[in-house]
Design goal:
Layout lengths: L3 H14 L4 H19 L9 H14 L2 H20 L26 H19 L6 E2 L11 E2 L1
Antiparallel strand pairs: 1-2
Helix pairs in contact: 1-2, 1-4, 2-4, 3-4
Length: 152
């Protein structure tokens, strides 16, 4: 019986042959090495249940951040999908795992004091690197730049 680590490495070897962005390959390789193999890699593929996968992903989310858990879910799901396509398991348990949610921070505009500090920092940067204090940048609220201003 295959261990999850073996099927995950097989999946990644096939995945690397497809044309993917280097950042994607690096992210998935890191996820495989740092999260999936240490977390559930020693389990046999038939030992991975929905509950086991859910607990693993929750632990990754709690120890790191939701995006790391999302990447782990993607890598593990793809690996288990490969196992299912080759009849090594009856179904992919990751298909029934709860969605991994993230809390989105509300966008906010800078306060006048924060704008002043930012402008002072930009002026200092310009003087240090370019010998001039003339700067130009756009001010946005975080929700869009429809009412942007040009500062000089």
């Amino acid at each position: 019986m295959l261990a999850i680590a073996v099927i995950a490495h097989l999946w990644f070897a096939v995945f690397k042959q497809k044309k993917r962005a280097n950042a994607t390959l690096t992210t998935y390789d890191d996820t495989l090495r740092l999260r999936v193999v240490p977390g559930v890699g020693s389990l046999r593929i038939r030992e991975l249940t929905v509950g086991t996968a859910e607990r693993f992903l929750n632990a990754v989310r709690d120890k790191t951040e939701p995006s790391a858990a999302k990447h782990a879910k993607t890598v593990l799901s793809q690996a288990m999908g490969l196992a299912a396509r080759h009849a090594a398991v009856e179904h992919n348990p990751l298909r029934n795992v709860s969605p991994i949610t993230t809390e989105k921070e509300l966008a906010r505009a800078l306060t006048l004091d924060e704008v002043r500090k930012l402008r002072a920092g930009l002026r200092a940067y310009e003087r240090a690197w370019h010998g001039t204090s003339q700067i130009s940048w756009t001010s946005c609220s975080g929700r869009g730049c429809g009412s942007a201003r040009r500062w000089q």
